[in-house]
Amino acid sequence: MRKFWMVLLSLSFITLVACSNEDKNTDTAEKSTDEKTEEVEKEETTETEEESSESEDEATEKEENSKTTAKSLYDESKATTNIMKKEATSLKSSIEMKHADDVLLEQTQITEGEYSTLGVENEEEARAKIKEIGDEEKYKDQEGVEYKVEYTDNTFIETFKVDYTVADLGVVSSLPEGTNSESQFVSYQLSVDNFKKQGYYVEGEQTTEVFRGEKEGYVYEVSILQDGKNKVLKQTTFNEQTYASLDLADKAAAEERFKDTVKGYEELSKEDGVNFDMKFEEDKFTVDGVIDYEKITDLDKVLTAMGIDPSNGQAKEEARNYTVTANGLLSNGLQHIETKK
């Protein structure tokens, strides 16, 4: 099934976290009585001059303190770079993230997608759509920000680079209301978490990504072991649903309704690397399922049982494509809730 993606052409969702500025040196305020008396005498003779330069001094001190606070948060010599990606037939996106500990220093996002991912059909419509989104105008002439979009016959290529050490965080990121922008930095880990909520993965990092959907009478959780190269290695599912949520009278009614499903699971579970177990309880049913692609000996047979045509090369490839799988879950209302390493 083809899935529609609306490309996020902005990093404005990036979360910032506050760092304390209370450790500022206050030694200069701790003077002796004699020093204070002497200072008062000096102030009486220079009051007019000091008042005239007060605003300028405060502005300079404010800027210096801001830079000092930001620099004290990280050791740039320990900076490293990680790459996040999502890759499917119609869209490829990579995000290069330079960070020192949890402080995100620089970020470069390059996204190439077919016009259909924007919900348009051609270059003219794509230009209009991107203009409507307004990022090009928003980031124009912003220090530390480079934003551009290139167009081909069938695709757009968007490049968005941000140097967070000099960029105005109030422009490139969202600050919690009422907080002081001087005491903010962009959190690398929270940024990674936010990108994972959009279906990205960290390149070269094998992890289990957990997705969950829940509402009254229904729970659906999927854990995906992916290899850090956009390939699904193993998928584990858990589904729990009450009979009442399906307007079923009781256990007997549920068993009758899902008897073919149970047979399908039983047949599928005969294959190596696959196991599905559906149980009917007093007021609900549960399904525990495992598909371990590394142990499957006849993938075509398993895909056929799953309703996927193995002769369709693209469909077969997408069956183990992490980006496609993750975005399919997200588009069906599940949310990324956890990463297990």
From TrEMBL:
<dbReference type="Pfam" id="PF06998">
    <property type="entry name" value="DUF1307"/>
</dbReference>
<dbReference type="InterPro" id="IPR009736">
    <property type="entry name" value="DUF1307"/>
</dbReference>
<feature type="signal peptide">
    <location>
        <begin position="1"/>
        <end position="20"/>
    </location>
</feature>
<feature type="compositionally biased region" description="Acidic residues">
    <location>
        <begin position="36"/>
        <end position="61"/>
    </location>
</feature>
<protein>
    <recommendedName>
        <fullName>Lipoprotein</fullName>
    </recommendedName>
</protein>
<keyword id="KW-0732">Signal</keyword>
<feature type="compositionally biased region" description="Basic and acidic residues">
    <location>
        <begin position="21"/>
        <end position="35"/>
    </location>
</feature>
<feature type="region of interest" description="Disordered">
    <location>
        <begin position="21"/>
        <end position="79"/>
    </location>
</feature>
<dbReference type="InterPro" id="IPR036699">
    <property type="entry name" value="YehR-like_sf"/>
</dbReference>
